[in-house]
Amino acid sequence: MTEVRIEQVDERDSSWEDDHPRFRVYLHGSGESSTGGWTDTYDVTGADVLQVIDWAQRQAGGSSTYAIALVHDDADEERRNPGHGRGLVWLVGMDGNDVAADGREATIQRRMLARRRDPVRLPIADNMPEGVPDPYNDGTRSR
After folding, report:
1. Residue 60 in contact with residue 72, Cβ under 8 Å?
2. What beta strand segments (E) does 1-143 contain?
3. Is residue 90 one of the residues assigned to a domain?
4. CB–CB of 72/91 below 8 Å?
5. What's the pLDDT tens digit per position in 132-141?
6. Rounded-to-integer distance, Cα 41 and Cα 18, Å
7. Which of 9, 29, 85, 124 could form a disulfide with 77 if both were Cys (CB 3.0 to 4.6 A apart)?
8. Distance of CA 134 to the CA centre of its chain
9. Number of domains observed in the structure of the chain
């Protein structure tokens, strides 16, 4: 298991920012004790990560699991290997259809399953705005 480390850093060590992130949401038709199953995938722009978590949780409800990644387009990798410059940085969860390769990934999958019963609690200010597509809500789930 990977040990959590926290270290103070100099905020000036970064040289670029992206203020228009693209998030990828994976919804998994998971089983009772497994995150694997069908997958439905969406890209979300114009929102921050808390709004994306809110949206993903509402789509997943109590029966599916979700994972969220930051989409990163690497121009250098695209030049070296055309068609392979896009990658993902996992922010919440992981690919639910991956077999856990180690204890860390098994823990991530258990946490994904646990969020069905105990979702992340967000303040109303961080909810996804009204009017965005809500494909998995048949009107019975509140915001």
Report:
1. no
2. 22-30, 37-45, 65-73, 86-92
3. yes
4. no
5. 998 987 665 6
6. 22
7. 85
8. 16
9. 1
- 13: in domain: no
Compute the distance between CA of residue 135 and CA of residue 26 in angstroms, rounded to an integer.
Answer: 13
Burial of 82 (0-12, 13-18, 19+ CB in 10 A): exposed
Q: How far apart are CA 99 and CA 105, in angstroms?
A: 8
Residue 30 CB neighbour total at 10 angstroms: 23
Residue whose pair of structure tokens reads 């969020």 in the numeric block: 115
Q: Mention every residue, 6+ apart, whose C-beta is less than 8 A from residue 61.
A: 116, 136, 141
Question: Is residue 11 a part of any domain in this protein?
Answer: no
pLDDT per position as a tens digit, 65-99? 999 999 999 899 999 999 999 999 999 999 999 99
